[in-house]
Design goal:
Blueprint lengths: L23 E7 L5 H11 L6 E4 L2 H4 L3 H9 L5 H16 L2 H5 L2 E5 L4 H4 L10 H17 L10 E7 L5 H17 L6 E7 L3 H11 L2 H6 L7 H20 L1
Parallel strand pairs: 1-3, 1-5, 2-3, 4-5
Helix pairs in contact: 1-8, 4-7
GO cellular component, one term: mitochondrion
GO molecular function: deoxynucleoside kinase activity
Protein name: Deoxynucleoside kinase domain-containing protein
Amino acid sequence: MTSSNSLTNSYINTEEYIYQFAKQHIFLSGGLAVGKTTVINRIHDYFLNRDEIVFIREYIDFDSNGMNMLERLHGGLISNYEFQLYVLDCYEKQLNTIDYEEADIVLWERHPCEALYIFCKNDYTLTFNERIKIEMKLDSLCERYEIPKFGDKNIDYIDFDIIINDSDSVSNYLVGELIYPMLMGEYEKNVFVLLYCSNLEKQFERLTKRGRFVELESYKKKEDLLIITNDYFGFYLKYKNNLTIN
């Protein structure tokens, strides 16, 4: 058995699996520089040598070529369509592993459907056929690996303001209130967790501090973060409120 301790899952399987027991998924999401990777790294370190949990990383933390692909996107060398297919391929490489097959709990950095619903939402260069192809790819991915989709009744929605809750607080909550109860069979649903920053200036400071050149070129002032931040809030509230109403 391979371990899920490494940040990338080393063994890629070529067979399709039929999972006998449903996995539980926790999707950790949110805009830029809100602490997703920090939280996942802390939980990863906490659960070293635990094969019941597998970590599905965002492309930039999974693939050594991730930053180059992001730079190519922003430099106009590849289209957003090509980039989002690359992002989904990075997810699938991590899903098509023994680690994923044998895990009971899957902790994601972003839900794969965000490729379409967030990062393609305001892209008017995408053709109708390209959107359909991304949607078909997502449907295939979710069906093959039994990934819950937004709108499913078995997803709870939780949000944390990182100005009030630091990375340690969020990590401790996820471990104590979600992951351990899941492992003990006391929590049955999947969970979508939204991290956000209520102070735009602080969020921009965090973005600047981590120093990714391509981000600094795209987000030159704090107000530039509003579009993706608002998209996430609208996306999150749409499904959370729909669940509450129904």
